[in-house]
Amino acid sequence: MRRIAVLDAPSNLGLRPPTQASVPGCAKAPGALRDRGLVARLGARDAGCHTPPRFDPGEWRPGDGVSQAGDIARYSVRLADRIGAIVDGGEFPVVLGGDCSIVLGSALAMCRLGEDRGGHIGLVYVDAHSDFRHPGNAPIVGAAAGEALALVTGRGQADLAGIEQRRPYVRDSDVVLVGLRTSDEYRMDLQAGGFAVRLAPDVRVHGASRTAQWARAQISECIGFWLHLDVDVLDPSVMPAVDAPDPGGIAYQELELLLRGLAGSPDCIGVEVTVFDPDFDVEGVYAGDLVNTLVAGLSDVSNTGPSLVLAQSSAPDPAVVPVIPTQGKRAPRSRRTPASS
Asked: Distance between CA atoms of 67 and 211, rounded to whole angstroms?
């Protein structure tokens, strides 16, 4: 049995300002989802909020690299710490973003975890966009959210792609993209990199449940995987409250089945939800629909046993042998057996 822990990560640092005098509204998403009862309906523990720095691109100009990179890097390290602590506690983190740049923190946490456990952790990237812009395929980079997948796979400037001298956080072969639009400009780059991709129309053709099975099969050699969900994978006719709505997306029922098949697997370590923008949802209708889908899609999480990674994190150290105290003497709590034994 796994308990869900909900952690807010309301960072909008990875987006461009929608107008000169405003900031992206996705930082309000965790509050909007909580107002619709998400935490209680999930039966989750409230893991608090990882507050981001102030959104301030300053004097950034095209050609300056990724905007607010220093703040994003520092935020990502602390977010990785928070996620790692939840996982080490045997819980299933549900991280409420925020824009797609929060995947830098979650991917860093999974990279650390994989190194500790002696294996690789995969990434299932459910998103309308590949977020694969980088200096090798674009003349200018700027907003980290549009470069998020490129950065976590080691492409781009080192202060974001190589935090803690770890690069990449996720190998290309351990990434699966689901829901990508046919118009994505980096599709050929993904193909050249050997990424596993299932486009949004193919999700409908093959079915969402089978697509989830297919995605898990692509990373079956990993010891676990993290799930990234950008709600713009939904069609704008049902979810227009995003910063970059793109037609040709999936329906709520398909998203629910994807979540059941992915997050409901014992190999799924956690999930993040990104890019929902309450500024485009004044009446809270889309927040309610999204919460209903998340609650239904994550309903199997608490029924699954711990993943291999979680089981290893909670297993007793085989090198520690308890010592039975003898009468009248206080024995040490444990002793280490020789490495050769």
From this structure: 35
Higher pLDDT, 250 or 307: 250
Radius of gyration of the chain (CA): 21
Q: Per the structure, how many domains does the chain have?
A: 1
Q: Would you say how long the chain is, in residues?
A: 341
Q: Residue 16: inside a domain, yes or no?
A: yes
**Cα distance between residue 231 and residue 249, in whole Å:** 10
Instruction: Indicate the SS3 state at residue 125.
Output: strand
Whose CA is closest to 150, among 112, 180, 198, 186?
A: 186
DSSP E strand boundaries for 268-319: 268-274
Q: Assess if residue 341 is contained within a domain.
A: no
CATH number at residue 295: 3.40.800.10
Amino acid letter for position 29: A
Q: Which helix (H) or strand (E) holds 114?
A: helix 103-117
Which has the minimum average pLDDT: 90-104, 133-147, 262-276, 310-324? Answer: 310-324
Question: From CA 197, how far away is CA 226, in angstroms rounded?
Answer: 16
What's the domain range around 147?
4-336
- φ, ψ for residue 179, nearest 5 deg: 95, 5
